[in-house]
User: Which sequence fits this backbone?
């Protein structure tokens, strides 16, 4: 039995993780989890996992009610509670499905507690990839990707030598507006932006797909996960979302990893790794299309390559600006194209600093996010 | 430096193998080879490889001339000469690129001499897969596929567990006549049949592609190479010949191996395995199409599945009938559709025998081939 801590259990990835654990015939076991702010959903989740030992609530409000109802479970709350879960003194793998920059500190705490990580929170590596890679080495833990693209690349590298890689190619569906010209983006609505053609995901990542910022974050994540320079990472438009990643090897071979657009596949791959667990899924091969990525159409992707190559605090700044701008767009306080503008302006105005500490990264993230929310948000 | 013996060095695969060795910066070394009946070509090949120690000529005719000219090389000839090469007492890997059933005995001799095999001669496994697999275990040698499809499948299985395989899928371009209906096949000519849309290969395999017999032989080969039942092996039409093979795993993941239609890639993969050697090759991803295989359109493929499942002498019978029929078609003594008819009639009239010996297999092959050449050939 493998113990699993799920951070962000009430989100899209989190709920699918819980489903995988339930169907695991006790091969997997939820030992800790963090929940959201919907107490009805929270209670239904708790009732499904009687073995759970520690639960983090989003805030203190309902803590006493839950604690009285479930005296055998330890309840904690807020960001500090996430750290407590990460440090909980029982072996296990931490699946980090937190949304946004909140995922960084718990990842660090989990590594320092010698727990392996299944990472669905890409901000962890975007903001602090160098630090995380140092910590992983220092504490001898493994970090497994959960993102479908990185899981696909990881699979193509099974049994392979890193030095044989010529390049990695990450596929992009193109998001909700892939068939619209830039001009047509002026008047798109939030509802339109939230309609992803292939994937059913959380709101933030759906918007990030439409701006292609998501692919930019994935490029930076891939750089840190696979230890490759940005010249060896490419993106390509692949509307069908069947091929999730391809590795070109130096001998002329290309390996691709394909699956249905179903996040349960990469989640289970990370949780069961190196084993594969039976999952009924019948991918029918039909036509697959590939088109070169158009950086002019998706300037945030080009920005991400630039920011990634620069390193230092710049990826944190880009990510923070984007996170705040998307929040404002989700509240319909700014227009779709304002996201790009805010992110680009913020990055270009920032004076970069190399080799930042973890505290500097987190402070910068907060400062940038607050600045944007105050500057562009409607009070 | 790795010693290589090339059987069939003057053929299409053989010549590409020689090219790879020449470009290997002495990492690979030709120590023995068998040549064809064109003495001008033979001499030019010999002059390129001064380190070669043993050479097999097709017949005795020019043996003395060559032996006098190259006194440091041991010259042998005919089928017995192939066996001498296979048994030559120096370590090395035998690349068997012989055409047809002539490849079987040399493979056996090489295994018995504890030499690893890079197998481009699919008849070896089609005719005697069970025997070869027993010998491989007994003599602790490795057998590597060279066929592009099997090399692709082998690559998708790198680092994987055989028990995780749900099924293997072999792609088929469809051959020269893929866009013709069965009715239109009545009057096709030899010249048309030899125009393969994607690959430049030898005549025999080009015809086998047009009849889909080649894919049938590959299915049987895959069964023996990867130790999977026929229910777990499928074929699919993929006109672009970019994806050569796919493995479906039980967890919903599919891995595909892609490359340009360039046999030097799988040849080098087998010769350098487990290393990968730099080869400039830029696969551009464009649209990839996949269509279900139509067994009614390609009855020889359906026959191959039947024959493979039956086992015993039947795969040898099918292969021999096809080999002889293709010879007659290449001499324009029968029509294209006669190939199918001859192969099907021969298989259905044969009384099968299980667990044949190697001698029985080879005798049956000769009997069937002679019978067909005598019955259907024009004297």
Assistant:
């Amino acid at each position: 039995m493998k113990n699993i801590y799920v951070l962000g259990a009430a989100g899209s990835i989190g709920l699918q993780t819980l489903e995988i654990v339930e169907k695991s015939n006790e091969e997997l076991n939820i030992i800790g989890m963090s929940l959201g702010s919907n107490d009805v959903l929270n209670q239904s989740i708790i009732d499904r996992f009687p073995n759970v030992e520690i639960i983090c609530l989003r805030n203190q409000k309902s803590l006493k009610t839950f604690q009285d109802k479930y005296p055998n479970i330890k309840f904690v709350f807020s960001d500090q509670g996430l750290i407590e879960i990460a440090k909980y003194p029982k072996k296990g793998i931490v699946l980090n499905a937190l949304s946004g920059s909140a995922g960084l500190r718990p990842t660090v705490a989990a590594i320092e507690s010698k727990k392996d990580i299944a990472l669905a929170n890409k901000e962890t590596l975007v903001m602090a990839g160098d630090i995380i890679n140092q910590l992983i080495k220092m504490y001898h833990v493994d970090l497994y990707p959960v993102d479908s693209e990185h899981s696909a690349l990881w699979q193509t590298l099974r049994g392979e030598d890193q030095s044989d890689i010529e390049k990695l190619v990450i596929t992009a569906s193109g998001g909700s507006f892939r068939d619209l010209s830039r001009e047509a983006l002026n008047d798109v609505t939030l509802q339109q932006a939230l309609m992803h053609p292939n994937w059913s995901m959380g709101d933030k990542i759906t918007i990030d797909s439409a701006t292609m910022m998501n692919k930019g974050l994935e490029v930076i994540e891939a750089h840190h996960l696979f230890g490759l320079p940005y010249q060896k990472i490419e993106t390509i438009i692949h509307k069908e979302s069947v091929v999730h990643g391809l590795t070109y090897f130096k001998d002329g071979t290309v390996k691709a990893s394909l699956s249905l657009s179903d996040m349960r596949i990469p989640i289970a791959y990370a949780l069961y790794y190196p084993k594969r667990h039976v999952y009924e899924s019948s991918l029918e091969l039909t036509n697959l299309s590939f088109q070169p990525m158009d950086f002019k159409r998706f300037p945030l992707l080009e920005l991400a390559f630039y920011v990634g190559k620069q390193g230092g605090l710049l990826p944190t700044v880009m990510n923070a600006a984007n996170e705040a701008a998307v929040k404002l767009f989700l509240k319909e306080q700014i227009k779709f194209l304002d996201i790009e503008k805010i992110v680009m302006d913020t990055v270009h105005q920032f004076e970069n600093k190399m080799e930042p500490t973890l505290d500097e990264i987190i402070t910068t993230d907060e400062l940038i996010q607050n600045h944007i929310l105050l500057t562009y948000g409607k009070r």
